[in-house]
Amino acid sequence: MIRRVVIVGGGTAGWMAAAALARGLGTTHAITLIESASIGTVGVGEATVPPIRDFNRYLRIDEDEFVRATSGSFKLGIEFVGWNGEGSRYFHPFGFLGPDMAGADFHHVWLRHLAEGGDPDIARINPETAAAREGRFARDTRHGPLHHAFHFDAARYATFLRGYAEARGVARIEGEVTAVERDGESGDIAAVRLASGAAVAGDLFVDCSGFRGLLIEGALETGYVDWTCWLPCDRAVALPTARIADPAPFTRSTAREAGWQWRIPLQHRTGNGYVYCSSFLGDDEAASLLAARVDGEPLAEPNRLRFTAGHRRLFWNRNCVAIGLAGGFLEPLESTSIHLIQTAIIRLLALFPGDHVDPRLAERFNREAQAEYEGVRDFVVAHYAVASGIDTPFWRAIGEAPLPESLAERIAVFRATGTVLYERGDLFGPTNWYAILTGQGCAASAYHPLVGALDGKLVRDRIAALEARCAQMIAGLPGHADFIAAHCGA
User: Which of 9, 6, 5 is nearest to 212 (CA)?
Assistant: First the structure.
């Protein structure tokens, strides 16, 4: 019987997995987490996307308590600066532009509105964009909720979840895994051995050991699918700085000479980083450029990371499931790192084995995980594919690089018809693709015939109704910092 679950590695991925498994299986399964205080964690991601709220709801965590414990702030979307050249900027909002009309996605209605000379400012109908622009926030308004995610301190989130998990029976073992023992007959992992000499046996192992992939790669030699040809950035340098102003309710991504720079405002500090390609920029120069471009005094030495975009050939191999960086990595341009941890955990719970690991469960897990990674990959690559006006060797090279066939098809179809090709259940839907493609100058030459057949007054009335609702939603909203102070100040 599958009764003993061993998680190797702590950090965000490890403790998210431990908390969720304890919530779902803690009364019937023994859950053990092994981590070493001497091994640092990447602290992957300080910005998230809205489904993190579903994960916290599954754990029955109060949102204010969570934000307070992690010194967090709220996020309404991402502002992209310079991706169409010097001085350009656009906003990728959470939420929706409007309800579908005549069976067509709403952005076709907006495309018709633009074609007929309408005001192009999306903030007129999208309250998340409007609130972000004014630095305002509230979870709910009299006319509906604001769709939001969070910025938070990843280390504090891991600590918060550790307390949650241990209170529900998860056993933490301090130690470094030095060897992996496999069953001589089945080839499955039987136990991990620690530097102390102790062995920890298990039935199912969850690899949250980060880029090293101690179990999934070190022991099982699963292999890796390398996406460097499409995502050549392979380095990042992170630098936290002191807070010097009220936190904005959005993440900022600024195009730079060899990649892009993030800015993530928390309650107690600001997270900054530069994701870049080492073929075009040296590590020391990247750190110097970042330090010269941040606001506030640095609070620590630069943290340097190396990575290869892609994923393991199998996320679930034998009786080992890789979650987080052990499973794969995509640069955090759209704040998807923690989301990919979350969906892997929920997928594991949905397919959790009973008396043995059925290969068909693992096959389904791997198929869904690969499709998810490929979908996020296409969305991230799209930012580079349609960027313009940046004349450096890196951007010239990336502009000449081939695209995944699936992405090339999406872009070509949007340009020709205005239609966004997507699968139901994709993380990024029509509103997201429309925001990125049009925000970076990829124009659609047509809109859906079903929308074209609508009465013009009906279209104008729908736009006017959305404008009125948006104005009503943001009227009187408190400032973002004021809302935090009133409800969830750290």
Answer: 9
Look-up of token digits 């950090």: 11
DSSP secondary structure code for residue 339 in this structure: H
pTM over 0.90: yes
| DSSP letter string, 212-270 | G-IIIIIIT---EEE-TTT----EEEE--EE--SPPPSSEEEEEETTEEEEEEE-SSEE
Element (H, E) at 306: strand 303-306
Exposed (0-12), middle (13-18) or buried (19+): which is 296, by Cβ within 10 Å?
A: middle
Instruction: Please state the φ and ψ torsions of residue 466, each to the nearest 5 degrees.
Output: -65, -40
- CA distance readout (Å), 118 to 109, 160, 460: 11, 48, 9
Residue 253 φ then ψ, to 5°: -120, 120
Cα separation, 213 vs 430, whole angstroms:
35
Hey, is 35 helix, strand or coil?
strand
**Catalytic amino acids?**
75
β 204-207/4-8 pair status: parallel
Side chain identity at 144, as an amino acid letter? G
In terms of Cβ atoms closer than 10 Å to its own Cβ (0-12, 13-18, 19+), residue 268 is: middle
- Note the pLDDT tens digit of each residue in 388-447: 999 999 999 999 999 999 999 999 999 999 999 998 889 999 999 999 999 999 999 999
Using DSSP's 3-state secondary structure scheme, residue 290 falls into helix
- CA–CA distance, 341 with 353 (Å, rounded to integer): 19
